[in-house]
Design goal:
The protein is α+β, with helices and mostly antiparallel strands. It has 17 helices and 21 strands. Helices cover about 35% and strands about 20% of the residues.
């Protein structure tokens, strides 16, 4: 790593960042590399927020939240802005197959999703031969769509006038808000199971493909075009690398330091209060969960667009019921497996109605087969995620958790795991209540505010937040939304606004070189050939 801190000066502008999640760390990196003095206040003893990797008794390692790492281009550019290289800091393994999809029903089908389009066409033909030609038409259409829509995702939305910008109007013609994601995919695939193979990714946003806006067809496109990666050591190592690089350019990260409130003088934020002390700042970046944190950090008069009542009445994503299991012996599973229940659409309708599904779909990660560092020799890790209603559904998870644990373990039989309970050597349960109580996730809504049309772009909490001056949002609760690459892009939007307001500009560290370097990185990882299990990308290879 060749990063070096800007020259120190007591007169440098100072920014306080609340939270060391992906958005907060990205903002800190960008601000510090532009000459700002940055202090990050993190209430927990580790960085990463939900994007952290924990070591459990027995030597098992688990990602707590995200397990897919997608579209490294954006983060590579952020590292480059700090004089560092993502590929030097994180060992990314490109997966092929990307994941295994198991469709239940009268005629069950299992496919291995591959970024090799010829192989993917053959896999889709297992579902319905008539749908195989749709793979390439889907990719071609969404390649154009992403390129047109990128300006929408890379700029702030100040209000309705933003929509009149030519590049925004060009992107919005691809939005088609009257179509759901499932309806959009009917242009390419006739079989509902094939459409589900290219739309279940809407669960990354905590939404149903039958209600999610059509623009999110780009999610599965990104996987096939740019790859699904496993960071060796877990996704938490990405957060740790971000923190290392941030500190190398002068960021002060203070762990175990909870911010109680943002301090204002009139309409201007002048710092944060933590541990009974005022920490003066010229601006404040908030990376804490929006619904959970904002009511306590800011008085309503400073945020009239989002008073407590509106926050309480907003639409939120689903939650997740999690099992983290340390298993004796190997597991005959793909790195990522998604079990899609025959009544998948009814599953999602139940969740949106606050009903806990009794025959749920689920996602399973068995990463130790790819990455032995995650388990002791002769053992495996099993990460299970079951979509369930958030806490607004009213369930008593203290009572429900034991029953639902049993149900989730029974569902593993559909993946061929019939003897799993006798092999469990470590176990942790995380329910929607645990997401709220232990990880400060409002309403246990794991994917933040929902991404319906009325909560996107200028309807979403804005990057330059509230009527107050000097408060900026990063993370899944602001534009452009949830998902790691989107959150990194949101950090660039918010830091650009902040620097403009301070009369500064973001350091690009030679923009032409940065784009070339990041583009080469993206091309390199995108062109790696695939073995049956995984393809390795690391520095020097």
């Amino acid at each position: 790593m060749n990063a070096s801190p800007p020259s120190l000066s007591q007169t440098r502008r100072h920014v306080a960042v609340i939270g060391a999640g992906p958005g907060g760390l990205a903002a800190a990196m960008l601000l510090a590399s532009s000459g700002v003095r940055v202090t990050v206040f993190e209430k927990d003893g580790v960085v990463g927020g939900r994007t952290r990797t924990v070591t459990a008794p027995g030597g098992y390692r688990f990602d707590i939240g995200p397990t897919f790492f997608l579209y490294p281009r954006i983060l590579a550019e952020i590292f480059e802005a700090c004089g560092a290289r993502l590929e030097d800091e994180v060992d990314l393994i490109r997966l092929d197959p990307q994941y295994r999809l198991i469709f239940e029903g009268a005629n069950p089908v299992t496919i291995d999703a591959s970024p090799d389009l010829a192989r993917m066409e053959a896999e889709v033909a297992k579902i319905n031969p008539a749908d195989a030609p749709g793979v390439r038409s889907f990719m071609a259409e969404n390649r154009v769509k992403l390129e047109a829509f990128r300006p929408v995702l890379e700029r702030p939305f100040h209000g309705v006038m933003t929509y009149l910008a030519p590049e925004v109007m060009n992107g919005l013609k691809h939005l088609r808000p009257w179509l759901s994601l499932d309806q959009e995919l009917q242009r390419h695939f006739s079989d509902p199971r094939t459409r589900l193979a290219f739309s279940f990714q809407s669960k990354y946003l905590g939404m149903s493909p039958f209600r999610c806006p059509s623009m999110f067809s780009i999610l599965s496109f990104l996987e096939y075009e740019h790859g699904v990666f496993h960071p060796r050591g877990g996704c938490g190592v990405v957060s740790e690398a971000m923190a290392r690089v941030a500190e190398s350019v002068g960021v002060d990260i203070r762990l175990n330091t909870k911010v109680d409130r943002i301090v204002f003088e009139g309409r201007r934020a002048v710092g944060v209060e933590a541990g009974g002390r005022l920490h003066a700042a010229d601006a404040v970046v908030v990376n804490a969960d929006f619904a959970h944190a904002i009511p306590g950090l800011m008085e309503e008069e400073q945020r009239p667009q989002w008073p407590d009542k509106k926050i309480a009445e907003a639409r939120y994503s689903c939650s997740t019921f999690m099992l983290y299991l340390g298993i004796e012996g190997p597991l005959d599973l793909a790195h990522h497996s998604v079990l899609l229940a025959e009544d998948y659409e009814n599953n999602l309708a139940q969740i949106e109605s606050g009903i806990i599904p009794q025959n749920p779909s689920l996602y399973v990660q068995a990463a130790a087969g790819t990455d032995p560092s995650l388990a002791p020799p002769g053992h495996s890790t099993l990460y299970m995620l079951v979509p369930v209603p958030n806490l607004l559904g009213g369930a008593d998870w203290a009572a429900e958790a034991p029953r639902y644990r049993r149900l989730a373990l029974d569902r593993l039989k559909a993946l061929g795991l019939h003897d799993i309970e006798s092999r469990i050597r470590y176990e942790k349960i995380l329910s929607p209540q645990g997401w709220q109580d232990d990880y400060a996730v409002g309403y246990g809504a794991t994917f933040n505010l929902a991404h319906n049309v009325r909560q996107m772009m200028h309807f979403r909490p804005r990057n330059r937040f509230g009527k107050a001056r000097g408060v900026y949002l990063v993370g899944g609760g602001t534009h452009p939304g949830s998902g790691l690459p989107v959150i990194y892009e949101g950090a660039r939007i918010s830091t650009d606004l902040l620097l403009q307001d301070l009369g500064m500009t973001r350091s690009e560290r030679s923009p032409r070189h940065m784009r070339a370097s990041a583009g080469a990185f993206s091309s390199q990882v995108g062109s790696l050939g695939g073995s049956e299990n995984a393809t390795k990308h690391s520095a020097g290879e």
